[in-house]
């Protein structure tokens, strides 16, 4: 009877805890969050002034203090982006610079901070994630929204002295907000890890190679980021460009020409409808080398040893090329033409793939997996260590139709929260999550009960392979990546030789 009474009291107290609202005092004022299953969440917190009207395309500005309590119980609107016609239109706004925080406790705990940057080809996506996955492990989790498409990455010669990458500067501004405010949520401002997937992984690489981000984080995880991929180049970029560089100002004018034939003055640009601007981008969008907000392509910066000295983890998927075509700048036939004289050698390397799969797989290896190896290998220029992973897991019911781990799966594995997954899927997700949490906590992914993950160096070429089992392997798709790197170095040779 005593045990039953105690159990009833405990359940009652737990239900009360779940119902309580949490109030946190920040520099910008009081915010009220919510609690569910012992995890406190604060959603839709503005971290910068609304980038609207005369602030469109400007670097993010400080947020004004608000009166009363800000209700942080719901996600903020998505940044403006194209919407599929077969789906309901989400809540979107040009006023979208918000972030979300999940924490196990509001105290002075100094927990590791994990800041997630979403993907979506720099044209879509949001930070609306199940952040409680890592908060339950003991981290303070932050996710951000940043300006997308032509509103976030845009260099037009009518916009004098404005940054070409306000979307990237949004992320830096959010990191500064974290530095100033995260202690109020029980986080350690001196122990921040940034991690992101696809375009978010590319943002991680851009930040890891950006002097403006120095001191704002100490660890970085780039999942299927594309640091070796060509970026647009502004007229303000360094003079010696990689081969076949595309001019950002011409690209911007072509985007605006989709909307109007009027003279493209600054007055006209500010009058354009934000939703229509977002809809001008119909494929992968890429950031812009302008010599300031982005000094140079991340791969080039890493090769030169100009990246930040931080613990670095990166990797990709065995069929990341599944993203080719649908939103990509090229399809298989165009990519085959692009390979030119290298086509025969490329096909021989991918002889085990079908005619319909091999170009997609190579495109994924060259865009995503090569980027991981290239940057990890060039951490040899720094004191900090690097770790590489390769995801090659396909669920049993998909093995007859999927040639490997598709592009979107890596992030899905990381935030897996459903009870419907197979035992193998749950085991993979749990181990990936623990490796990531360990890395954020200590700067090393290894820990009790996990297979040993060796640091990366070019001689051993050690990767952690996330497959049916987790094991360290040397020389993951080495010949294929060597071939891709040869093509990459040929493209960037002029910039490296200066």
Protein described:
An eleven-stranded mixed beta sheet has the order 3-4-8-10-9-11-12-15-16-17-18, with helices on both faces. Strands 1-2-5 form a three-stranded mixed beta sheet, with no helix packed on it. With 498 residues, it is an alpha/beta fold. The protein has one domain (20-497): Rossmann fold (3-Layer(aba) Sandwich). It has helices at residues 2-19, 132-135, 149-152, 166-181, 199-208, 248-257, 266-271, 274-278, 298-304, 332-339, 343-349, 358-377, 409-414, 423-442, 478-497; strands spanning 23-26, 29-32, 34-36, 39-46, 69-71, 78-79, 92-93, 98-103, 111-117, 140-144, 187-197, 219-223, 232-233, 288-289, 311-317, 386-391, 462-466, 470-474. The N and C termini lie far apart (81 Å). The chain contains 15 helices and 18 strands.
Radius of gyration: 23 Å
What is the number of strand segments?
18
First and last CA, distance: 81 Å
CATH topology: Rossmann fold
What's the mean pLDDT score? 92
The number of helical runs is 15
**CATH architectural grouping:** 3-Layer(aba) Sandwich
What is the C-level CATH assignment?
Alpha Beta
Total number of domains:
1
Structural class: alpha/beta
CATH-assigned homologous superfamily: Alpha/Beta hydrolase fold, catalytic domain
Uncertain segments? 1-19
The major pleated sheet works out as:
11 strands, mixed
- For the biggest β-sheet, the strand order reads 3-4-8-10-9-11-12-15-16-17-18
Helix content: 25-40%
């Amino acid at each position: 009877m005593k045990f039953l009474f105690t159990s009833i009291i405990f359940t009652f107290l737990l239900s009360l805890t779940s119902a309580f609202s949490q109030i946190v005092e920040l520099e910008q004022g009081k915010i009220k969050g919510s609690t569910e299953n012992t995890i406190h969440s604060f959603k839709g917190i503005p971290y910068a002034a609304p980038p609207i009207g005369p602030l469109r395309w400007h670097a993010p500005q400080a947020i004004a203090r608000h009166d009363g309590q800000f209700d942080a119980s719901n996600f903020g609107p998505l940044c403006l982006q194209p919407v599929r016609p077969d789906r309901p239109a989400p809540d979107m706004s040009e006023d979208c610079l918000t972030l979300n925080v999940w924490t196990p406790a509001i105290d002075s705990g100094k927990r590791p901070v994990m800041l997630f940057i979403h993907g979506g080809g720099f044209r879509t996506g949001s930070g609306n994630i199940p952040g409680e996955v890592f908060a339950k492990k003991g981290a303070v989790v932050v996710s951000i929204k940043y300006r997308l498409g032509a509103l976030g990455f845009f260099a037009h010669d009518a916009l004098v002295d404005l940054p070409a990458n306000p979307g990237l500067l949004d992320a830096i501004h959010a990191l500064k907000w974290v530095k100033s405010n995260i202690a109020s949520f029980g986080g350690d401002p001196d122990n921040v890890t940034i991690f992101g997937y696809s375009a978010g992984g590319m943002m991680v690489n851009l930040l890891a190679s950006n002097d403006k981000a120095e001191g704002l984080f100490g660890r970085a995880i780039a999942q299927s980021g594309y640091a070796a991929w060509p970026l647009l180049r502004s007229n303000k970029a360094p003079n010696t460009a990689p081969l076949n560089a595309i001019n950002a100002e011409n690209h911007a004018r072509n985007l605006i020409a989709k909307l109007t034939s009027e003279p493209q003055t600054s007055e006209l640009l500010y009058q354009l409808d934000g939703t229509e601007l977002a809809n001008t981008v119909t494929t992968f969008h890429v950031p812009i080398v302008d010599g300031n907000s982005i000094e140079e392509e991340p791969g080039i910066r890493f090769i030169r040893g100009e990246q930040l000295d931080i613990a670095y983890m990166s990797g990709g998927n065995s069929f990341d090329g599944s993203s080719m075509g649908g939103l990509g700048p090229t399809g298989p036939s165009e990519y085959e033409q692009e390979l030119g004289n290298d086509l025969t050698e490329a096909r021989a390397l991918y002889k085990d793939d079908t005619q319909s799969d091999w170009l997609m797989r190579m495109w994924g290896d060259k865009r995503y997996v090569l980027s991981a190896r290239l940057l990890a290998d060039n951490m040899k220029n720094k004191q900090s260590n690097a770790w590489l992973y390769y995801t090659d897991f396909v669920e049993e019911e998909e093995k007859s139709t999927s040639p490997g781990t598709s592009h979107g799966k890596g992030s899905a594995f990381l935030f897996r929260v459903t009870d419907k997954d197979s035992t193998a899927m749950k085991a993979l997700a749990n181990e990936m999550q623990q490796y990531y949490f360990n890395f954020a906590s200590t700067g090393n992914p290894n820990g009790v009960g996990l297979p040993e993950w060796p640091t990366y160096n070019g001689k051993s070429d050690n990767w952690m392979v996330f497959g049916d089992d987790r094991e360290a392997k040397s020389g993951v798709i080495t010949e294929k990546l060597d071939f891709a790197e040869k093509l990459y170095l040929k493209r960037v040779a002029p910039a490296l030789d200066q």
